[in-house]
Every structure is written in C-alpha cells, then in structure tokens.
C-alpha cells in the first residue's frame, strides 16, 4: 500500500550504487546511490561564502540560496565537495523492498528521472475474487480472515474497497483487503483463502 519513488532532482552522474538488487530489503535512511552533481557547485559555494557574513543583506541572500538548494532536495550540510564536484547521497525514504532499480553506475541522470521504486511491506493488499451476487453485501471496514498458503494460523485483515469491476468470464468482483505484515513474512503473489464477514447482511 505504500510506494515511494526516489527521483533525481538535478542533473548528475551516478558515481556509485549502494543498492543494486531488485527486491532487496532496505531500511529508512540506508544509502541508495551517490551522485556527482557539478551543476550544484556554484549554488553551494555561494551559500557557504555567505555563511561567514554578518550583514542583514548577506543573511537574506543566504536564506534565498538555501531555499534554492532545498527546491533541488539538497541539504548543504550533507553535500561533500572534497576532491571534485559536489556529491549527493540519496537515502531510502522508508523501510521496504526495492521493487525497481532503474539506474546504473556511470549513467547520467536528469531532473525528474526515476532512479528507485520502493514498496513498503508492513501492509499488503490482497485481491479477493467474490461472486457478483455476494459482493453487494460487503463494504469497506468489514473484517476478513486470511489463511495464506503454507501458514499455520489465519490472520485478520479488513476490507479497504469493493472494486466496481466484474470479470466477464468468472462473474466475480474484486474485493481489496488490507493485510498486516509487520514481520515481513508475506510475499507478493502468494495465494490465500479468505473468509469475508459482512456487517450489513448475513
């Protein structure tokens, strides 16, 4: 249910990939990639040069320079300029699994380009197929008992939505169920048996 997209804010060169493998688990704050960003050199130099000035005008200019860097997603204190152009380290915004690694070392990236797609796994969607005649008895918030193939005990979930779509072949309707996955044991694509409990009708 939680998807995070990590994109480039500025033009740069991928110097190093810290996360390379799709479906690898990462924790919030883990480094994903280091970018060389020469286009930031002048903006960072301006910000740091103004930092030593005490005049009100310089303070205003420094605040404007900081705002410009923040628009690029850059914290000046976290940018290294040693041994060449500025380097930016991109970090994972949340715990989860790397659903997509869309960049390689040595590649030039442009502003807005997708670099990583990260899916949170603490809650998953389960797509239950319900006979069309029974779907009308269900609503968001109803309880669901879920037994995943291979598991010894059922778990409790709840209906998030009854989707307005009927399969023309099976005449079933999709019911989206939220299933908690705090320990990360559930895998996308697994099959399960589901008992849906309506609060409106038997």
Secondary structure layout plus pairing:
Blueprint: E1 3-7, E2 12-17, E3 25-26, E4 31-36, H1 41-51, H2 56-71, E5 87-91, E6 96-101, E7 108-109, E8 114-119, E9 123-131, H3 132-135, E10 143-148, E11 155-166, E12 172-180, E13 192-197
Antiparallel strand pairs: 1-8, 2-4, 2-7, 3-6, 4-5, 6-8, 9-12, 10-11, 10-13, 11-12
Helix pairs in contact: 1-2
List keywords for this structure.
about 200 residues, 3 helices, about 40% strand, about 15% helix
Account of the protein in words:
The chain has 202 residues and is of the alpha+beta class. The protein is 15% helix and 40% strand. The chain is built from 3 helices and 13 strands. The strands form 3 sheets. Strands 9-12-11-10-13 form a 5-stranded antiparallel β-sheet. Strands 1-8-6-3 form a 4-stranded antiparallel β-sheet, with no helix packed on it. It is elongated. The mean pLDDT is 84.
Q: Uncertain runs with pLDDT below 50, 5 residues or more?
A: none
SSE run: EEEEHHEEEEEHEEEE
Instruction: Strand order, main sheet: write it out.
Output: 9-12-11-10-13
- Main beta-sheet strand count, sense and barrel state: 5 strands, antiparallel
State the shape: elongated
Mean pLDDT: 84
Quick synopsis:
The protein has 202 residues and is of the alpha+beta class.
């Amino acid at each position: 249910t939680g998807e995070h997209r990590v994109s480039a804010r500025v033009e740069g060169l991928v110097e190093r990939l810290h996360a390379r493998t799709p479906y690898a688990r990462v924790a919030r704050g883990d480094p994903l990639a280091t970018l060389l960003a020469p286009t930031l050199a002048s903006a960072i130099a301006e910000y740091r040069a103004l930092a030593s000035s005490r005049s009100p005008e310089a303070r205003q200019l420094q605040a404007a320079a900081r705002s410009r860097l923040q628009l690029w997603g850059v914290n000046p204190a976290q940018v290294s300029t040693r041994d060449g152009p500025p380097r930016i380290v991109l970090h994972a915004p949340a715990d989860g699994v790397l659903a997509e690694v869309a960049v390689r070392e040595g590649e030039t990236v442009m502003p807005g380009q997708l670099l990583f797609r990260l899916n949170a796994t603490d809650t998953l969607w389960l797509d239950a197929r319900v006979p069309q005649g029974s779907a009308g008895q269900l609503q968001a918030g109803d309880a669901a008992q879920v037994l995943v193939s291979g598991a010894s005990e059922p778990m409790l979930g709840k209906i998030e939505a009854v989707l307005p779509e009927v399969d023309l072949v099976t005449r079933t309707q999709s019911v989206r169920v939220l299933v908690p996955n705090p320990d990360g044991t559930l895998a996308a694509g697994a099959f399960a048996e589901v008992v849906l409990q309506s609060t409106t009708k038997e």
